[in-house]
Design brief:
- It comes from Candidatus Intestinimonas pullistercoris.
- FMN binds at residues 21, 45-46, 99, 126, 164, 190, 216, 242-243, 264-265.
- The chain has helices at residues 78-89, 105-118, 137-140, 143-156, 172-181, 220-233, 247-256, 266-269, 273-287, and strands at residues 6-8, 11-13, 17-19, 41-43, 60-63, 66-69, 95-100, 122-126, 161-164, 186-189, 193-195, 198-199, 204-205, 212-215, 238-241, 260-262.
- The protein contains 9 helices and 16 strands.
- The two termini are 35 Å apart.
- The chain has one domain (6-51, 70-193, 214-296): Aldolase class I (TIM Barrel, Alpha-Beta Barrel), CATH 3.20.20.
- The strands form 4 sheets. Strands 3-4-7-8-9-10-15-16 form an 8-stranded parallel β-barrel, surrounded by 6 helices. Strands 5-6-14-11 form a 4-stranded antiparallel β-sheet, with no helix packed on it.
- The protein is 32% helix and 19% strand.
- Bound molecules: succinic acid.
- Succinic acid binds at residues 22, 46, 71-73, 126, 128-131, 191-192, 213.
């Protein structure tokens, strides 16, 4: 029997499959289709100090092999999450990762305190949302600001802190090194790639915000390359994500260096995608004669 457990910065996941922030809400809808305890971890929709309605519609556009979103961090706020959503999620035997976004380092710190006290298993510090004016990419594209947010989050959190990196930079290892130096316990990557679509008849951008973040199978090679680069640059566990829709995709990200893998946009086309990917990944590892799925991590054999 394959051992599917993986250890993400001290948080033991029963298998490497995570559902990433923004693709799974707080699990209520998907819980009608499969037992959420089947997953390694659930990363909840990005939380902010106050409730947010998000950006005006249209905020989703289809693309070849993916989607573009400009949701803008719609969420009920951290207090409502703690009061209403976390107790529901806690009914399942699954690790809970809270994704947070703030306008200032202090806001990140306050949320880290509240969420640690509320008993989440891990906090994912989002410094890479491409759809908000303050916070988000403003922090994730500048090493010194990324480090400052990480340091404040670490000071206020009593659970492991994972920092979510943006692909919208020239050299992702520069940001990875900065947040590692500031004490991050793990990294997650990649968030979405900035993109734009235009309706050729109206000559209007399809998204009301003009631009958005691209996810889905089209971004997988970018994610694999960036996970590989970051794995070589810093000694931190990585939650790899970006376009995974099969077990082989998940294996690619693990071979590149990911400890665990998130299955996100694929869930919009197939609600069972996370559990299917988990089963396909296990079958692939067993076919290769592995004892533990974690043997895949970083096992790529690069040329030259
Ligand atoms: C959003 O809500 O705009 C997406 C969140 C993100 O990309 O971090």
């Amino acid at each position: 029997m394959l051992d599917q457990k993986v250890n993400l910065a001290g948080v033991e996941l029963k298998n490497p499959i995570v559902v990433p922030s923004g693709t799974f809400g707080f699990g209520r809808e998907y819980g009608q289709f499969f037992d959420l305890s089947e997953l390694g971890a659930i990363c909840v929709k990005g939380l902010t100090p106050q409730p947010r309605e998000g950006n005006p519609a249209p905020r989703i556009a289809e693309t070849p092999m993916g989607i573009l979103n400009s949701v803008g961090l719609q969420n009920p706020g951290v207090d409502a999450f703690v009061a209403q959503e976390l107790p529901e999620l806690r009914r399942h035997d699954v690790k809970i990762i809270a994704n947070i976004s703030g306008n200032t380092p202090e806001e990140y710190g306050e949320m880290c305190e509240k969420l640690s006290a509320a008993g989440v298993d891990m906090i994912e510090v989002n410094i890479s949302c491409p759809n908000v004016k303050a916070g988000g990419l403003a922090y994730g594209t500048r090493p010194e600001l990324a480090a400052e947010v990480t340091e404040v989050a670490k000071r206020h959190a009593s659970v492991p802190v994972m920092v979510k990196l943006s692909p919208n930079v020239t050299d992702i290892t520069e940001i990875a090194r900065a947040v590692a130096g500031a004490g991050a316990d793990a990294l997650s990557l990649i968030n979405t790639i900035r993109g734009m679509r235009i309706d050729v008849k109206t000559r209007r951008p399809i998204l009301k915000m003009n631009t958005g973040g691209l996810s889905g199978p089209a971004v997988l090679p970018v994610a694999v390359r960036m996970v590989w680069e970051v794995h070589a640059a810093v000694d931190l566990p990585i939650l790899g994500m970006g376009g995974v829709s099969t077990g082989a995709d998940a294996a690619e990200l693990m071979l590149a260096g990911a400890t665990a893998v998130a299955v996100g946009t694929a869930s919009f086309a197939d609600v069972y995608a996370p559990v299917r990917v988990r089963d396909e990944l296990s079958a692939l590892a067993e076919e290769q004669g592995l004892q533990r799925v974690s043997e895949l991590t970083g096992a790529v054999r690069p040329w030259g």
